[in-house]
């Protein structure tokens, strides 16, 4: 799974070689979608935010000011969005099926970063996965893998 995540972010990084952030930069779209998932339960916890920063830092090679610039741009994009469609439409065009599967896995990792999964987070990811063309079966599998990585019971609430 780690290799799939690494390949996903490397693919996006290759699409966006420069550290400069254009408004249509897929890194902003991915991070903004992560913010939407973090906010689904009404509370953005520090552990969720740190997990997102860790993922972005590791996969895009960003640190310090560049990482914060991406976080600010993503949060602004998320604040301007009225639904998931804006981001999922762009990502469905830019990403192949494996990359979209990896993205849904990342979203589940963000959910489990705080050790808890809410009904609202579940609903948000099911909707995002559907818009990305990911089946419910695949999403359940990705959720179970994320729960396992987080050290939680993968069958909880099934």
UniProtKB/TrEMBL annotation:
Pfam families: TerB (PF05099). Residues 28-144 form the Co-chaperone DjlA N-terminal domain. It comes from the Bacteria. This is Co-chaperone DjlA N-terminal domain-containing protein.
């Amino acid at each position: 799974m780690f290799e799939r995540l690494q390949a996903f972010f490397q693919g996006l990084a290759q699409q966006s070689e420069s550290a400069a952030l254009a408004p249509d930069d897929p890194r902003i779209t991915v991070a903004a979608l992560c913010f939407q998932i973090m906010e689904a339960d009404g509370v953005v916890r520090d552990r969720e935010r740190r997990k997102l920063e860790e993922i972005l830092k590791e996969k895009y090679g960003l640190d310090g000011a560049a990482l914060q610039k991406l976080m600010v741009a993503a949060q602004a994009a998320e604040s301007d969005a009225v639904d998931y469609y804006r981001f999922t439409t762009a990502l469905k065009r830019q990403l192949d099926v494996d990359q979209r599967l990896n993205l849904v896995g990342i979203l589940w990792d963000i959910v489990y970063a705080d050790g808890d999964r809410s009904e609202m987070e579940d609903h948000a990811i099911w909707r995002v996965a559907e818009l990305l063309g990911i089946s419910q079966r695949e999403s359940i599998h990705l959720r179970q893998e994320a729960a396992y990585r987080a050290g939680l019971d993968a069958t909880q609430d099934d």
